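Support reply, case 0932

Customer input (verbatim):
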Amino acid sequence: MLDSKESASRPVEAYRDYLHLLARLQLAPRLRGKVDPSDVVQQTLIKAHQNRDRFRGETSAEQAGWLRRILTNTIIDTARKYHQEVTVESPLRQDADESAARLDAWLAADQSSPSAATHREERLVGLASALAQLPEEQRTAVELHHLQEASVAEVAEVLGKTEASVAGLLRRGLKRLRELLQEHA
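Our regenerated output:
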């Protein structure tokens, strides 16, 4: 495992799946169908690359937080572009914090030391990468149910499937996710 100093020097591209997951979680309710999360992530990575000399952190946790702020600002700029109310800024910042907190809670890591925070960030990036490898319907079901706390009935409505079908998607998705996370470990 990388120590916290080495982790902060990780290329921002290594956070693509993590940022994509957060973008999907933040964009879904507000800009669905108008904006592709991949475009927002690409803009975020470009901004991060252009401003890499402004990053003053030393750990991967600080680097991930810096990238989350850039992502949120990019989403806010995108919302403004689509003439969404300027008042979306506060809820979007709150959504970003809540999305990251849900991911943290899912992994429930101890934050007692810098190395523990670094390990947690590495696990978050690994989780996002594993989620990105799931088939789209399984990924969407897992994200909606476990990260956005939607009920099985709500997920079924979004996906246009029966609750039994969604339950199967969740079962298969979580099983595959566990396998992928074990491979990553």
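We compared this against your earlier run and they match. Two observations from our side: The two ends are 10 Å apart (CA to CA). Residues 1-7, 86-90 have pLDDT under 50 and may be disordered. Please reopen the case if you see a mismatch on your end.
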